[in-house]
């Protein structure tokens, strides 16, 4: 939580006091997030799969790389913000912090931490898709030369392949 925007000593003490309070809303929100983190990650992986998988498949076969990067970044950003607890820190800061400056600092730290982590995930997924794109195009070229199979027939290779496991690994494990 305390990352890119430094908090002063009194602000750190205030946030630690807020987080250690024995408040029912804290317990309900945080225990739900902690106890069901893997279920939440898998559900978000399925949602991300619906959004990103068509873009991944289009990118493999020559689609827009910029569209892929934007869709991946913002989808993972929202999911990562929820899973890693950024939403919890934002919630308690907005609800219980005394100053507007502290609320803004904690919220921006949560968002920036997620943005940095998601940037690394986006680069990793881009490298995976880029290698998959090169290998698929090379395979299609070889098969086309040898057996005269049209390139359009290779678009069905990844048509029904869900990348849910990959998204889950990126959100939960990596």
Summarize the structure.
By secondary structure, the protein is mostly helical.
The Cα radius of gyration reads 21 Å
Low-confidence stretches: none
Straight-line N-to-C gap:
19 Å
Content-based structural category: mainly alpha
Number of DSSP strands? 0
Main β sheet profile: none
Number of alpha- plus pi-helical segments: 7
Strand content: under 5%
How helix-rich are the residues, as a percent range?
over 70%
| Average of per-residue pLDDT values | 88
- Quick one: overall form? elongated
Return the string of H and E elements.
HHHHHHH
What's the layout of helices and strands?
Blueprint (H helix, E strand, L loop, with lengths): L8 H12 L3 H12 L1 H24 L4 H19 L2 H11 L3 H48 L16 H10 L1
Structure notes:
The chain has 174 residues and is mostly helical. It contains 7 helices and no strands. The longest helix is centred in the last third of the chain and has 48 residues, at 100-147.
